[in-house]
Amino acid sequence: MNPANKVHTNSQYNALRQKAEKKRQAFLNEPVPKIHIGMATCGIAAGALDTKAAFEDALARHSVNARIHTVGCIGHCYAEPYVIIDHPDSGFPPIFYHEVTPGKAGMLTNLFLKEGDPRFEHVLGATVQNEMIPWIMDFPRFNLEKRVVMEKCGRIDPEDIDEYIAEDGYSTLADILQRSPEEIIKEIKDSGLRGRGGAGFSTGRKWELCANTSQNDKLLICNADEGDPGAYMDRTILESNPHQVLEGMIICAYAVGADKAIVYVRAEYPLAVKIITQAIQQAKELGLLGHHILGSSFDLDIDVFQGSGAFVCGEETALIRSIEGFRGMARHRPPYPVERGLWGKPTVINNVKTLATVVPVLSNGSAWYREIGTENSPGTAIFSVVGNVVHPGLVEIPMGVTLRTLIFDICGGIPGKKKFKAVQIGGPSGGCLPEELLDTPIDFDSLTETGAMMGSGGMVVMDEDTCTVDISRYFLDFTQKESCGKCTFCRIGTFHLLSILERITKGEGRDGDIEQLKQLSEDIKNGSLCGLGKTAPNPVLTSLRYFIDDYEAHIKEKRCPAMMCRPLIAYYIDLDKCARGCDACVGCCPVEAVFNTSNRKKGIDQILCVKCGECLVACPPEYDAVIKVSPPELAPILERPPEPVKKA
Amino acid sequence: MLPELTAEEKSILDDVKTDLAEISKERSKLIPILQFIQSKINYLPQVAINLVADHLDISPSEVYGVATFYNQFRFNPPGRNPVKVCMGTACHVRGGDIILENFERKLEIKEGETTPDREFSVERVACVGCCALAPVAIMGETVHGHMQPSKVEGLVLRVRIEKEKQEREKQKNEPGK
After folding, report:
1. I need a labelling partner for A222 at 20 to 30 A (CA). Which of A149, A316, A535, B167 fits?
2. Alpha-carbon gap, residue A553 to A67, rounded angstroms
3. Lowest-confidence range among A160-174, A289-303, A587-601, B50-64?
4. Contact (CB<8Å) B71/A310
5. Do A46 and B130 touch (CB under 8 A)?
6. What pLDDT score does B1 carry?
7. Are A572 and A629 in contact (CB under 8 A)?
């Protein structure tokens, strides 16, 4: 770049920055309390819209002057809807409140904002260190995390580009535009950044391959087709900090020499689609996208393409086919998309997290990034930890932290005094790991060694009441439906795997099933083109490896040890414990299977019973009379008395 | 057997026809066009498939082949209260299938179908992204977390009671009838 342009880029950026900072200062200096509400999809699902409305209503009702500031998601799903109230006049630091229902919102407005009582019983913590209220960074759920990618998530308003700019946003871009593309690629290569989509391919290497192709017309695709059921970090990043992704995309396009980019985002994420589209528009208006970005000679246009919900489209060649307007079927590689991608042009496809990571890597340097994480997997990993844990949500940790630390220290372990059984990592492509492997460090290579994989970062924690055979069946059911049908082994093999697993969970398992599962799994792995088929048998293979007892109990004893497979369990009512007068189980049964015996104690009609477990939940703990058994033959059969004649 | 188009749906499709003229005839527009039509009419009736095929100059079976590949597209009209039951991993572990089964039983339809009065439809969706509330069902726009079989009955009943109430008021306001 010539020196004149250099000056131009800096002055353009500085003008944007000054305007943004002025706006932020005005907001911060305004002498009224501020209410920050997390409003990503997860917050809204938990009721954040109602909470916001309740605050607005209460502020008007109590005539309190305060600003409501909507922000993205910080990933602490257990606390949703969460609110941070910054009320300097009260003498308290900014306070983090969790599970703020509309009722609590009204109460806080009245008692805290108006009268200055922060209601300690509802406080989760303070966001800064102080003497009165515990600091949230003293809690392991906060302080064991290392926020690199999600640093700004939940702090800024994703719908306002100025808030991102005021927080140093787009400064890396302004800086990068003054360096040569080769320098940037080298820096990314030096940082050791590996693609966060699951496979862990070196990002710098990918960029280099694309930059080195002789063709001029190059493309960049940001892959936000997050199909793994149970993972939602890509959505959260797009909804909470879209500009960091855009900045990463512009940098990548500049480095590889692309002038057109596409964000491929699932149509099932309407809010993410809305926010990223809006963000692109805002960036265009400020000259951060389009012609002559920040006064340089670099041009880039970004479009949004809505993916129509096919898991296989997370695979790059299938994704390309779907943008071209065809069924999303994978094709053979090579040629890799970096050589021949969308419309035959060289195409770099990077995951949302990868592109969002590029920004902090370049602003802090590759040496800084290398210090985080492990030798071969530098940086952080974002997991959505869900299932049977106390504090579910998104967690960003440095690579190399053990599974035990993540599940027990950060996420609070298993609720309800249950025992840990397994953790499923990597969604339908990953595997179930047992307690013995909890000390495995989380990085690309260690996880692959165990038979699971990093995948997209979905992590489901399961307690002793979860059946690993059923979980394998669940994932196979998913991959079988999502297989594109191109490769015979994947199309037919997964169907057979699923039918064997279905038989086993119904108690119709046979000798030889286990061997056949293993054989089929290996064949599918070898006979499939793309990542979907190659990894589809992983849930079966890992559960066979670590939880063979579960399979044997199902096949040989027709029993589900976790009592989860419904055909293999039965509920009955212990007549010694049942209280005559209570009708809780009768009322809750959706199929009227619970009946009165002659002495008004209850019985369950095993033929009608659908085994939903409602009666078990409904039975008051002081009686605790409903009992679940496996195999179902253990349940004593009670004769249902004839229906009493109803009085007219 | 697919249901007949209503008069309203026919007029929307006429509008769609005019809108289509504005969109280029590139093959890569196929999925965006299908998404556009579905956003207008909530499903893809046979007529719409033919429209798109004509516009892009490909066979209707080609359009149908692409549309059926993707989960987003539906070929029968959703109910006025579409029920989506989350079948993500976390919801499965906490009994999402039991919830789905209860909706199916209560409404006497199978997953992917619509009740004859077009009041309800039931479908399964992969993860809606609020795993901490599992199991989750979405009715209309509202997310219902921590579902239980007995809650299913309550939700369905509430809609039916609301409807009856509205009809009663309608009758009250039209004293002539």
Report:
1. A535
2. 60
3. A587-601
4. yes
5. yes
6. 46
7. yes
Angle of helix B60-69 relative to helix B46-56, nearest 10 degrees?
A: 110
Q: Which CATH number fits domain B81-173: 3.40.30.10, 3.40.50.1000, 3.90.226.10, 3.40.50.1970?
A: 3.40.30.10
Element (H, E) at B41: helix B30-41
CB contact under 8 A, B105 and A471: no
Domain boundaries, chain B: 7-69, 81-173
Q: Which domains does chain A have, with CATH numbers?
A: 31-138 (3.40.30.10), 161-371 (3.40.50.11540), 380-466 (3.10.20.600), 469-556 (1.20.1440.230), 569-634 (3.30.70.20)
pTM of this prediction exceeds 0.90? yes
Mutate to test the interface with B, among A612, A615, A617 (most CBs of B within 10 A): A612
- Judged by CB atoms closer than 8 Å, whether chains meet at A232 and B148 is answered as no
Q: Which residues of A touch B71 (CB under 8 A)?
A: 308-310
Which residues in chain B show pLDDT less than 50? 1, 177
The predicted pLDDT at position A113 comes to: 93
Using the beta-carbon criterion (under 8 Å), do B89 and A386 form an inter-chain contact?
Answer: yes
Contacts of B70 in chain A (CB under 8 A): 308-310, 322, 328
Q: Which residues of A touch B145 (CB under 8 A)?
A: 45-46
Cα dihedral A520, A525, A531, A533 in deg (nearest 10):
-20
Q: Which helix (H) or strand (E) holds A11?
A: helix A3-29
Cβ–Cβ below 8 Å for A45 and B101: no
Q: What is the pLDDT of residues A421-474, one digit of tens each?
A: 999 998 888 899 999 999 999 999 999 899 888 887 888 899 999 999 999 999
Q: Mean pLDDT, to the nearest integer, of A510-539?
A: 94
Q: What's the ipTM?
A: 0.89
Quick one: tokens of A204? 């710098």
